[in-house]
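User: We ran a pulldown and think these components assemble together. Before we commit to crystallization trials, I'd like a predicted model of the whole complex to look at. Sequences follow.
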Amino acid sequence: MGYYMTLPPVVEIRESFRRTPNSGSNLAAWYQSGSPDPIGSWKGEVFRKLERLERGPDVPGLGNLRLSEAAAAQLRLQLAGVSLQSLPFPSVVGISGQGAQLDWRTGERMVEVIAFADGELVIEATDRGTPVEFEETEGLETYLEWLVGAADRPLVYATAR
Amino acid sequence: MPRHDDVVGIPNHSVLIRAVQPDWLEVENGSERLRSSTYLDGQQEASCFISAEVGDLEGFRANILPMLARELGMQIAAIATIPVAEVRAEGLWVYRKPEEFHNNPAHVVVCPPDGITKSQYAKRAKRLAPLAAKHPVLET
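Assistant: Here's a predicted model for the assembly, 301 residues in total across the polymer chains.
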């Protein structure tokens, strides 16, 4: 009997994870904190993939596939600032040279983030393959709002080059 | 030595070979194709090999690919080839960097010219994948 009492509980339900009618604001704040998500949202999945990319191999002749600390930190910072919970799962791919490429697609629209090894991010949006321009100061959330149609803004199509 | 486009040492008719890791392939309409990530590089230097200097695809398969697969810890998924002329037409440079692959002079990098932004570089590098040919790892 004494032995069993020393075992941890099989399931630990923390107050902040409980889905109750009053927990909406807690959950929203928690999502925005950028913590890995046990419920399985797109953000939790992306964080898990970034973590895997941070352990990637360095392959001379192909490239270093280990996501750099600076790139991972910038991606987490941008993703943590996105409050949209209902988004498609993005594709997360490691690129050589310690970078990563993330893209979200809905229908003909696509938002893409490219993270460079030094932590610089390039964010691009396309509609039916045509680049759509945003103000340079706009963050990832504005692009993703446009992707899912949440942003009511006129579109400015950029030239191809 | 600063990077430059080695137009004398690497003529336009040369072909570049790049190993493709599994994540750089996607399936669209039932067929597998190279993702735009294939030639993107987080340090703006995508490693390739000059085909004629490694014994073309056969030589690459026999001598280089096993070394890359061993370092990667898994099988290489495909091989991509692209003519140097196409790389230059997209506004990118090809520069020898033997020191990054066992002092092998056939190792080159595809890099941007000086003075362009990372956004411009990304646009150019992403356009290479649709221009490249995809080959199987095993000779058919």
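The first strand of chain B starts at residue 15 and ends at 20. That may be worth checking against your pulldown data before setting up trials.

User: Thanks, that helps.
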